[in-house]
Specification:
Layout (H helix, E strand, L loop, with lengths): L7 H31 L6 H19 L3 H22 L9 H23 L15 E3 L4 E3 H23 L1 H11 L1 H6 L4 H23 L9 H16 L4 H21 L7 H12 L10
Antiparallel strand pairs: 1-2
Amino acid sequence: MLFGYNLSPILAQSVLGMVNGAFYALLSLGLAIIFGLLNIINFAHGALYMLGAVVSYLLLHFLGIGYWPALVLAPLIVGAFGVLLERTMINRLYKLDHLYGLLLTFGVALILEGIVRNSIGSSGVTYSVPEALRGATRLGFMIMPTYRLWVVVASFVICITTWLILEKTPIGATLRAATENAALVQSFGVNVPRLITLTYGAGVGLAGLAGVMAAPVYSVNPNMGSDVIIVVFAVVVIGGMGSILGSILTGFGLGLLEGLTKSIYPEASGVVVFVLMIVVLLTRPAGLFGKAA
């Protein structure tokens, strides 16, 4: 209670908003890696997120492979598809204007959505919550479904671990150096093209992982990527294009803001992210954590 007003509903709605924030953070992290390190605007990211959910569904219903193995297998499969995509198409665009990469990946997204729509239909299919994560957990001010709590915690751990690898390890240092001066890094015996390909695969693999985690929360359907990708791009812009930590913090923060807005003024919850993006672009064009060109 604060000044006689019960804050529990507001806190509860804000925490539930963190579930969306967890997916925003995971997806924007992959986008930030691909743009920040490879300079490609990957508009197919939403479709690859959807593909992760579809792969987990196919693994379960055709091979009997459940949720926990799918958390490893589906991102690897989506990442392998990303590697194939990079080697056959995207690597031809690195020296061209960003518009070419955006158009190519947008076309790939439309193709993937069309294939999935013809395979499982437009209404989608359900994916059950794993038995170990069913039920609810009492948080004091609310009772939260255990699976959604798992999504928030797991996403945060994955995001921070990825950031630490990129910022604090020799692998991350080598990758950042390769994007700045590929010829110099190659002279030290590093296979830069392979490194770039694996980076793209890792970025889309994160999208696939988000798709697996989203499958029990939302229905697996061909539109699930297109429904979220515009918000995720807004998250990346607000955090700063190419800023890894900015994408993570902004993703979780905007999920929290959406939840808070739903509890106070629900009609504005769908546009609050874009209003904030406009304000940030007007006051800080490089984003909250980005660096000016």
